[in-house]
Structures are given as C-alpha cells and as structure tokens.
UniProtKB/TrEMBL annotation:
<keyword id="KW-0949">S-adenosyl-L-methionine</keyword>
<dbReference type="InterPro" id="IPR029063">
    <property type="entry name" value="SAM-dependent_MTases_sf"/>
</dbReference>
<dbReference type="GO" id="GO:0052907">
    <property type="term" value="F:23S rRNA (adenine(1618)-N(6))-methyltransferase activity"/>
</dbReference>
<dbReference type="Pfam" id="PF05971">
    <property type="entry name" value="Methyltransf_10"/>
</dbReference>
<dbReference type="GO" id="GO:0070475">
    <property type="term" value="P:rRNA base methylation"/>
</dbReference>
<keyword id="KW-0489">Methyltransferase</keyword>
<keyword id="KW-0698">rRNA processing</keyword>
<keyword id="KW-0808">Transferase</keyword>
<keyword id="KW-0963">Cytoplasm</keyword>
<comment type="function">
    <text>Specifically methylates the adenine in position 1618 of 23S rRNA.</text>
</comment>
<dbReference type="GO" id="GO:0005737">
    <property type="term" value="C:cytoplasm"/>
</dbReference>
<comment type="similarity">
    <text>Belongs to the methyltransferase superfamily. METTL16/RlmF family.</text>
</comment>
<dbReference type="InterPro" id="IPR016909">
    <property type="entry name" value="rRNA_lsu_MeTfrase_F"/>
</dbReference>
<dbReference type="InterPro" id="IPR010286">
    <property type="entry name" value="METTL16/RlmF"/>
</dbReference>
<protein>
    <recommendedName>
        <fullName>Ribosomal RNA large subunit methyltransferase F</fullName>
        <ecNumber>2.1.1.181</ecNumber>
    </recommendedName>
</protein>
Length: 325
C-alpha cells in the first residue's frame, strides 16, 4: 500500500458528530496558539506533522495546546505522574451524556440539550487534570462538582480553575474523605444534580495496569516493549482499585440508589465489553427504571457509556420543566 493511501491514526471520524476533534490535529494552528508545542512536533511515517505519543511531555504539551485552542483555557497543568487524559475521548463522553439529557424524558416533543449553569454535573474522580469539567463548562455552560479522594488532585484542579476566569464560580472541587463513599459526603442535603459522570479505575492492581499498558504499546505496533509505558501517566487511585472496574461500578450503582431523587441521571464509562453484563445485573438489582447503553470508540479503543435513572418518565418531565426551563 502506498504511504498516501494508509489510514492515518489521527483521523477520528468515529467520534461524536459534535466533537471538535474528529479531524486530524492541525499542528500548525496548534503551534500558533501554543508555541511550546513546536519542539515536540515532527513528521511521522505518513509525512504528516505529529508528536511521539509515547513521550509523556509531548502528550502533556498537546493537551495544553488543545485546551487553549479549542476551549480557551490559558492555564492548564498537572503534577508529575498524574493522569494526562486524551482530550478527544473526554469530549466524546460529555457530548453523549448531553444527548442523554436532551432526550429526557423519552418520547417528549421539542427536546433540546439543556445548557447553562442551571445544569449541574458531578464528576466522580475528577483527577488533577479537571478535564471533564473544563470541556463540559466550555461546551455547554454547565456547572460542575468534581470529587476526588486525593488532596493533591483537588489542589491541582483548584489551581486550574483559579487561573482561568471563565471557569471561576462554575467548578466546585470537593475532597472525598471516605474512600468507601461515592456520593455521601460530597452531595449536600437538598442538593440536586442533573447528571453524574465517571471514568472508573480500569484495573484491579498495579501489575494489571502495567500489563494493559504493554498491550496498548503493542497494539500501536512498537517493535520492542521492554517495560510498561504509561504515556498518559496516572496515580494508583486513577488506574486501579480493589476489584477493578466491575467492583467499582457495582458499588457506585448500589450507592446511587440512595440518591435516586437527588440526581436525574447517573452514568459511567465501561472499558471492557465483558464487564457490561455484570453492570446490567447490578442495575437490575438496584431497581433502576431506565438504562441506556451507548457504544463509543476512539481509534482502536472501544468503550461504552452506561446511564441509568431511578425516576419515572413523569418525574423526569417535572425535573426538566422545573430545572431547565
């Protein structure tokens, strides 16, 4: 196959239609916006400008440039070793969950995606990067609560908010002092949340996380992989937990039942298709009234978003009419 006929890895047409990152990265424009990116940019095997996605410093510089260019975020940083997430995938989750809100209640006419600060989203495990609240507020004007069990992550997120006037007053970062709780201790009495989002720890141990990283490197056709390369970084609580993704989500589902009238939609990413039946079983046991499973993909990576609610269509309509109009 001729080089100009190869499929470029940067092409992301499988992303959500509203995702600003569907096209290949325009590195010339990104460099104009963020000159510090230039030292990481080189022609790749397709003769296109690109970066070394196995270089954590390059990935971080790209994230800074994307957040500045597309979302008008002039300051963004994370502590060394913390998760530096891929921006297109984070944006995809938010656009799909916006569709869930826009389709509430099912079957109603004249539905639109609710926008503005009256819509409040809880990001469970916001991390030091604060990327979900940044994109969600800049794209839809939503207010955010970001929770995390790591004080360093909370401090980092607050620094990002404090350094960007557009975010101030719209993102509230709260420390979860009891790692066993997800909503309790974060949501205040009588507080109402329109939707929750979560990117749960994928793995059950550090060894499993490293093995997953080796597979990722192999999938990207590196010739030799002598050690795990976590090019997007990540602390232990960001990457793994006891029981891994299945146990974390099952626990979240159980705890969500106690907040079924305080939140309209709960949601989570599920990285592995094999975990989906277990999540659906947990949702059934919790007595949820409606479940949506939405496939998502970015490049070779497939995942899915699962959203659930404990509210009837009538209750959903009252919620929409009283909070969003």
């Amino acid at each position: 196959m001729r080089p100009d006929k190869k499929i470029h890895p940067e092409e992301k047409s499988n992303l959500h239609p509203r995702n600003k990152h569907r096209a290949r990265y325009d590195f010339k424009q990104l460099i104009k916006s963020s000159p510090n990116l230039e030292r990481f940019v080189r022609p790749n095997e397709y003769r296109d400008l690109s970066i070394d996605f196995f270089n954590p410093a390059a990935v971080k510089a790209l994230n800074k440039a994307l957040l500045r260019y597309f979302y008008k975020i002039n300051f963004w940083d994370i502590p060394e070793g913390y998760l530096c997430p891929p921006i297109p995938g984070r944006a995809d989750y938010l656009h799909y969950i916006a569709d869930v809100l826009g389709a509430t209640p099912a079957g109603a006419s004249g539905q639109k995606i609710p926008k503005g600060a009256k819509v409040t989203c809880l990001d469970v495990g916001v991390g030091a990067n604060c990327v979900y609240p940044i994109i969600g507020h800049q794209e839809y004007g939503w207010s955010f609560i970001g929770s995390d069990i790591d004080p360093v992550a909370i401090a980092s997120g607050r620094q990002v908010v404090d350094q960007n006037p557009a975010l101030q007053g719209h993102i509230d970062l709260r420390l979860q002092t009891n790692p066993g709780n997800i909503f309790k201790g974060i949501l205040r009495p009588e507080e109402r949340i329109d939707v929750t989002i979560c990117n749960p720890p994928f793995h059950a141990s550090k060894a499993e996380a490293q093995a997953g990283s080796r597979r990722k490197v192999g999938n990207l056709k590196q010739q030799r992989v002598s050690a795990a390369v976590l090019n997007f970084g990540g602390q232990s609580n960001e990457l793994w937990c006891k029981g891994g993704e299945p146990e974390f989500i099952a626990n979240m589902v159980r705890q969500s039942k106690g907040f079924g009238t305080a939140c309209l939609w709960f949601s989570t990413l599920v990285s592995k298709q094999a975990n989906v039946p277990g999540v659906h079983k947990a949702l059934q046991a919790a007595g949820v009234l409606e479940v949506k499973t939405i496939p998502m993909s970015q490049g070779n990576k497939a995942s899915r978003l699962i959203a659930w609610t404990f509210q009837t269509p009538e209750q959903q309509k009252i919620w929409r009419d009283t909070r969003w109009r």
